[in-house]
Write a structure and sequence with these properties.
- The protein folds into two domains: 1-45, no CATH class; 49-80, no CATH class.
- By secondary structure, the chain is α+β, with helices and mostly antiparallel strands.
- The chain has helices at 53-61, 68-78; strands spanning 10-16, 29-35.
């Protein structure tokens, strides 16, 4: 996982077409990134992970929570 600290303060806004989704639904979203100083839009690369509450219940059942990377990348493989 790579994180590059931005040179400026950014605000990231995510808008979806629906307030709630059922498991398996397609999620449509729009991401807007703005500079908080100038309030102008900024080009940015953004990664988004979408999950449902069942993933969090699986994490709560563990004695030691998995790291974010393993939750995102391996959760489906581990539960098979």
């Amino acid at each position: 996982m790579v994180f590059k600290k931005p040179a400026e303060n950014l605000k990231i806004q995510v808008k979806t077409d629906k307030p709630l989704y059922a498991p398996g639904d397609q999620v449509n979203y729009e991401v807007t990134v703005t500079n908080t100083t100038t309030n102008q839009r900024v080009d940015a690369y953004v990664s988004i992970v979408v999950t449902d509450d069942s993933v969090f219940s699986k994490v709560e059942e563990r004695k030691q929570p998995a790291s974010l990377a393993s939750r995102v990348l391996l959760e489906n493989e581990v539960s098979r």
